[in-house]
């Protein structure tokens, strides 16, 4: 290394050396990110988690009125040896008030017996799988805390032929769009007997993973009290995992979307068990694209040109919010542009700049867009509009990439230190990521304001962007307001854009950042204490 440095110095090429050093630094950083998000690292992280988990003291719950019926089902052929293994493992259960029922072709009879014998809850376990020793006691603790809960599920992992555990699935709370991509609620699935959903189990002839998925999709059409336990309570056998991974549920989801009158196509994917949904817009509503800027006309022109040249959706207007531009080339451009210009002769306030533009916007839907954006996917507006039109959806965010095609944004999560951060940042865009998340429409508490689509009515309903937050946290505060109003904020993997982040003006006013972050922590404490679409078992920003 020293010889290389000396070579550059002797040649008088210090600047070349600096550039080379920068490139090496980026390569090393990329390699570190790739390692941090790799399967090997996740296995190592989970091994560390297991070691810590073994030291955890699980609450010992005395037998109570909560009585569990464990329904043990199989798909092809009943195995006596696997059932004997399951029975042996059950002897170690901390909570003892349970019975096991083997589901042959007699599910309706079993359900009648469960109801008559006054069991309170049903758990479903597939042949070959096991449950943790503290599974039932953990469920009892959850029920005791949230007595109106109708459906419970937990985290899970895979147990191989040698008994080694790996590939943990640390799950979010109930997230309907994620559920349509794959059935992540199927373990350890627990249903309350004295509830409206119990009777719907009788519609199942032969119990299987496919039938359970249909059941879950059906009952979640209505409001349901669902609780997730952030702990590994279910150990899926490797054989069952492989079977699920290679089984398509496309027809099940297509049928469900039809029943819900949702317009989406399912794209081809590997593995087949994941459904990549792409929603289509209804009709042809006008979209208002709002771009605040100050000078940097080359950046702005690149953004506007890419919208004009690459967007296949044509019913839009661009509103340029000029915040005290002074350069003559900028002023000349504004004289000749065909787009609407809002003159904002105010101190920089990102929230106010956007709110001013929304007031004059003609579109039914608003796109907040940074000026340092370049369009990649031509149907970025259609795919976002198909989601933003849905009644339950608030903000729709984009897949933002750095110029080197590494991820800048696929959603935001709350880290253990309380900060919100971009998940999977700098992971290569071609990588599907943990549980295929980078390719799936997925709920997040917050999204970056560099590109957000939202209906104008919902924007106004929550009061738009908070003008007391001039620089930082205005986008996340807006997302929290939508969440509080009962809407889901979604990451849209089909809206792919370049974000030349360092060119943006946001973040330059350092004096106000600390104050605005403190406001967010205090105002949205209840959401920041537990990120409902993340999982407390994750350590960092890479779903690992």
Question: How would the blueprint of this fold be written?
Answer:
Elements: H1 2-10, H2 14-36, H3 39-54, E1 68-73, H4 80-90, E2 98-103, H5 107-116, E3 121-126, E4 130-131, H6 135-145, E5 151-159, E6 165-169, H7 176-181, E7 190-192, H8 209-219, E8 226-237, H9 238-245, H10 250-259, E9 264-267, E10 276-279, E11 287-293, H11 297-310, E12 316-322, H12 328-336, E13 340-343, H13 350-360, E14 365-369, E15 373-375, H14 380-388, E16 393-401, E17 407-409, E18 412-414, E19 420-422, E20 442-444, E21 451-455, H15 456-461, H16 474-484, E22 488-499, H17 510-523, H18 525-528
Parallel strand pairs: 1-2, 1-3, 5-8, 11-12, 11-14, 12-13, 16-22
Antiparallel strand pairs: 3-7, 4-8, 5-6, 5-7, 9-10, 14-21, 15-22, 16-17, 16-21, 18-19, 20-22
Keywords summarizing the entry:
544 residues; alpha/beta; Spore Coat Polysaccharide Biosynthesis Protein SpsA, Chain A; ten-stranded mixed sheet; eight-stranded mixed sheet; 35% helix; elongated
């Amino acid at each position: 290394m020293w010889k290389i440095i000396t070579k550059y110095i002797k040649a008088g090429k210090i600047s070349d050396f600096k550039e080379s050093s920068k490139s090496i630094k980026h390569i090393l950083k990329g390699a570190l990110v790739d390692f941090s998000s790799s399967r090997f690292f996740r296995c190592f992280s989970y091994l560390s988690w297991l070691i810590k988990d073994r030291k955890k003291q699980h609450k010992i719950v005395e037998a109570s009125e909560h009585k569990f019926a464990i329904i043990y089902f199989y798909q092809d052929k009943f195995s006596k040896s696997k059932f004997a293994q399951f029975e042996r493992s059950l002897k170690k259960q901390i909570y003892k008030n349970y019975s096991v029922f083997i589901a042959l072709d007699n599910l309706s009879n079993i359900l009648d017996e469960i109801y008559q014998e006054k069991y309170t809850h049903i758990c479903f376990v597939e042949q070959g799988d096991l449950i943790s020793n503290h599974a039932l006691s953990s469920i009892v603790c959850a029920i005791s805390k949230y007595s109106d809960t109708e459906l419970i599920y937990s985290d899970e992992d895979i147990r191989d032929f040698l008994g080694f555990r790996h590939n943990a699935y640390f799950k979010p709370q109930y997230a309907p769009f994620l559920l349509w991509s794959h059935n992540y609620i199927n373990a350890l699935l627990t249903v309350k007997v004295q509830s409206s959903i119990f009777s719907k189990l009788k519609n199942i002839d032969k119990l299987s993973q496919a039938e359970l998925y249909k059941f879950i999709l059906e009952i979640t059409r209505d409001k349901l009290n669902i609780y997730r336990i952030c702990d590994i309570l279910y150990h899926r056998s490797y054989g069952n995992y492989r079977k699920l991974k290679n089984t398509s549920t496309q027809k099940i989801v297509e049928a469900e979307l039809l029943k819900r009158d949702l317009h989406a196509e399912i794209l081809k994917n590997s593995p087949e068990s994941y459904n990549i949904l792409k929603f289509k817009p209804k009709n042809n509503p006008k979209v208002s694209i709002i771009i605040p800027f100050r000078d940097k006309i080359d950046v702005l022109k690149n953004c506007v040109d890419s919208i004009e040249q690459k967007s296949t959706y044509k019913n839009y207007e661009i509103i340029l919010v000029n915040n005290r531009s002074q350069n003559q080339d900028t002023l000349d451009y504004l004289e000749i542009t065909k787009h609407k210009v809002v003159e904002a002769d105010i101190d920089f306030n990102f929230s106010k700049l956007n709110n001013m533009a929304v007031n004059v916007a003609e579109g039914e839907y608003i796109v907040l867009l940074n000026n340092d954006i370049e369009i990649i996917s031509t149907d970025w507006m259609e795919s976002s509009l198909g989601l933003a039109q849905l009644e339950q959806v608030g903000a729709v965010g984009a897949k933002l990439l750095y110029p080197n095609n590494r991820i800048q944004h696929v959603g935001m999560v709350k880290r253990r230190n309380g900060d919100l951060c971009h998940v999977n940042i700098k992971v290569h865009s071609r990588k599907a990521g943990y549980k295929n998340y980078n390719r799936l429409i997925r709920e997040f508490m917050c999204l970056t304001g560099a590109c957000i689509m939202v209906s104008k009515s919902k924007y106004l309903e929550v009061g738009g962007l908070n003008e007391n937050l001039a620089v930082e946290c205005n986008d996340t505060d807006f997302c929290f307001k939508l969440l509080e109003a009962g809407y889901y904020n979604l990451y849209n993997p089909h809206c792919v854009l370049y974000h030349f982040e360092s060119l943006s003006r946001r973040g330059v006013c350092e004096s106000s950042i600390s104050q605005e972050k403190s406001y967010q922590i205090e105002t949205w404490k209840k959401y920041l204490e537990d990120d409902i679409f993340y999982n407390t078992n994750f350590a960092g920003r890479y779903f690992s």
